[in-house]
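Predict structure. Chain length: 537.
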Amino acid sequence: MDRSRTGAQLVAAASLCILVLGAPPAVGEALRLQPSSYSCPEGRVPEGARLDAYRSCTFTNLYLWQGRAYYVLSDDKAAAPALGQLGLKFEMWASDEGPEPVTEFFEVTTADALAQRLPAAAAGQAATVPLAYYHFMEEWLPGLSMTLCEQFGHCSYADRSRLQLIDVQQRPRSCNSRELYPAFFREAAGCLSAKPLLHINGSSLRGQLARVEEAWMGLGPRCRGIPAGCYVPGSGRLPPTPQLTASLRLILAQCLGARLDAPAPLRPVQVLVIDRPYTSNRQRRYPPDRVAVRLAYMEGLSVRQQAQLWSGATVVLHMHGAALGNYFFLPSRAVVVQLAPSYRLNPSRYSRLLERDLAGVSDIRVVDWSNSDPTRLHLNTEAITADTRPGPRSYLADRERYAELATSFECSESLRPSLYRACRSLQTQVNLVLDLEVAANLTDAAIAQAFRQQQQAVPAWLAALRAGAGGAAADGRIPPAAAAAAEQERRRIDAVAAGLPLLERLRGAGPLLTLALGVAVGAAATLVVVSAVWRIA
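Prediction complete.
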């Protein structure tokens, strides 16, 4: 980009619908409003995409004021552009915005009409800020990065100094318009732009007239993960390419100080277990000179700290959730064990797509395991009682309905939509009591896979360990003797817990190991692993 311009670019990624500025905007300029223009080069539309959806355009001389972007006509007789027909989209999930989302914040006017509206003031209020990644790191950030790289040539970490991201999100995410972004949101956006993230309706811009000489607007057709159409031929949307994925990983590596170019370490093997801050007793399973096992807590960690943890791991054991967004930080040919409290979560739906998109880039492998025994599930009442949202509170007010959820863990489709959504939200707050032998057998198999990933023989000590653990199967199945011991231990713990309040039972009675269902900050639930034969160090 020409550094002599004071330009900006408007792009968007899901809850980040983004204007990007190359230098501070011109403010006021004695109201000498310059006419706006735009172009949407067909050369920017990759083969397989469509001109009418997920298209990026370049605008010149846009004016930002009072939370809106104004396109100024050259005179009263000039034809207004059909902005709603350009195919501009700002949400990774198409269902989250209307058919013409650009009209929600974008307006065509004349210089005289805009001048008559000036000046005005702005305000900012407090709002609840989300703490978990949710789908941001896995789907939204990659979508934004791919648009910037493929459509506008912003493919390197050095380009960040040229950009200013301006969020144009108009939907109910009130924390966005008040610029109350989660820490991980700002930190990740900072990898693409060196300037602070702003909102078009935030206090920094709302009270002044700002001229943007050049703006990039609209998400490109590339997307990844589970938004509709990403991998469907003929949908008009396109999956990532290895080159675009590699570009994102390189930017993140340089931004977050993570080594993503080296293969997963094998001597010693580095096993990372994502845990929650509960007490537990542990004994060592692996020889310390062969395998280093680290339990880590993601709560309160920055994106940089999480990236550095994950980038040094050979094997990661975690529960299904926001941890998926950290797969981009894994070293080459690492192996992940993803656990799910229920097969209904369909964890492989996410992991297979991540394997696909990272193929030829980091070539990770994911082992998925889902619980099929509902008797091992318990609601996380501690988190549920702390939920102050109206929907869940209304659902909990019906004691009979709540009791049914606590025993069946099912949400009846006969519920009215608002209660069904509340029930599904409560479904994510579940504890899983899992025999630790299953988790360890899966970890053993993952370590063996890590050696095979690098064309190295499985070491004799690991083969002997697996053979001596009661003949446990590589897929995590427990032999009869170990299963009987685990069941006996579970019953003993249940007997102890029977006399305790429910919250105390969920905190753990006896030798329990607790793992998180959702990694990153603000995990959604807990995995409680009953230690029957041995415990992970």
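Summary: The CA atoms of residues 37 and 316 lie 50 Å apart.
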